[in-house]
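2024-03-11 09:14:02 DEBUG pipeline.ingest accepted 1 chain
2024-03-11 09:14:02 DEBUG pipeline.ingest length=123
2024-03-11 09:14:03 DEBUG pipeline.predict start
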Amino acid sequence: MKPSQKGLIRIVHATANSVRGFRAALKSEAAVRQDCLLALVLVPLAFWLTADTAERALLILPVFILLIVELLNSAIEATVDRISPDLHELSGKAKDIASAAVMFSLILIGITWATVLWPRFFG
C-alpha cells in the first residue's frame, strides 16, 4: 500500500493527475472540446460586455459549471463503458442522467446570460 503523501508533494501530484485527466478528456471527448471552445468565446465576451465585476462573475460562473459537469459526464461514461461494453438499462440510465446534467448546465448559461444582458441591450 502506498503511504499517503502530505503537504506540497500531495498538491503537486494531485495537480499532475488533474492535468492528465483534462488532457485525456480533451483528446477523447468531442463534447469537452466543444465546451472548451464555448468557454474560450464566452469568458472574454463576458469581460467585453460588462464593466461590473459581479455581472462578469455571474456570466463566467455557469460556463465553468458547464465544464465541470461535462468532465463528470465524461468520467461517468468512461466508467460505465469500462464496467461493460454490453447494453444495459442501468448503463443507459446513468449516461442519460449525466447528459441531462450537461443540458441543464447549458440552460443555466442561457438563462444567466439573458438575465444579465437583456436589460443592458433591450431594457
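2024-03-11 09:14:41 DEBUG pipeline.report The chain has four helices and no strands.
2024-03-11 09:14:41 DEBUG pipeline.predict end
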